Amino acid sequence: MTFPAQRLLDRARRANHNAAMTQNAENPPADEIRDLSWGLSNRLFFRLYQCANMLHKTGTKALEDYTITTQQWAVLGALTRPAFIGGVAVGDLAAFLLVSRQNLAGVLQRLEGMAYIERAVDPKDTRSRLILLTTKGRSLWDANMRPVISDYYREALAGFSTDDKIHLAHYLDKMLNNFKSIDRDSDN
Q: By the 8 A CB rule, do 79 and 88 touch?
């Protein structure tokens, strides 16, 4: 049994092959090829949308014992990166997570209210504040969240080979760069 996306791909390949084999190569069935390409693109983006929704739903459920959402998970995870151990400015954290400062502000307030993060004066600029993990936040991440996240990754990536994961990361990076290009274009 083939998957719907595989059937679309097979149809596109047949259409391309048939177009190449026609006597009149100057007039290939471009509409059919364009429709198949659009349909495949539509399916990919809808699947990406569904995956993002399921990541949010199942990721939040996986960490419900700690009352952590996927947005909070992303922030705490970012703050464990070696580059951010000494703290990170809100603007830099927002840029890293690809969210607006306004969207990040509420997440930071909730994490600060739970004592998982704190704001500290930037030693390089006393007018600025840096976001840091607290000892409680580091303990939550290391002792509680990491084992749960590890199990979650294992379940979510069941059936993926190492090569599959490498390819998926490559293609998602490629798409992310395209999105960044689109975003730059819209700012002009």
A: yes
Question: Could you say which DSSP state residue 121 is in?
Answer: E
pTM for this structure?
A: 0.78
Task: Output the pLDDT for position 31.
Answer: 73
Determine how β-strand 125-133 pairs with β-strand 88-89.
Answer: antiparallel
**Residue-level length of the chain:** 188
For 65, which DSSP code?
Answer: G
Distance CA 142, CA 18 (A): 57
Q: What is the pLDDT of residues 63-102, one digit of tens each?
A: 999 999 999 999 999 999 999 999 999 999 999 999 999 9
Q: How far is CA 154 from CA 61, 158, 162, 184, in A?
A: 15, 6, 12, 35
pLDDT at 34: 74
Per-residue burial over 55-93, b = 16 or more CB atoms within 10 Å of its CB, e = otherwise: eeeebbebbeebebebbbbbbbebbeeeebeebbebeeb
Tokens of 141: 């991440």
Residue tagged 């997440």 (tokens): 107
Question: What does DSSP assign to residue 116?
Answer: S
Greatest Cα pair distance in the chain: 75
d(CA 3, CA 174): 24
pLDDT at 26: 54
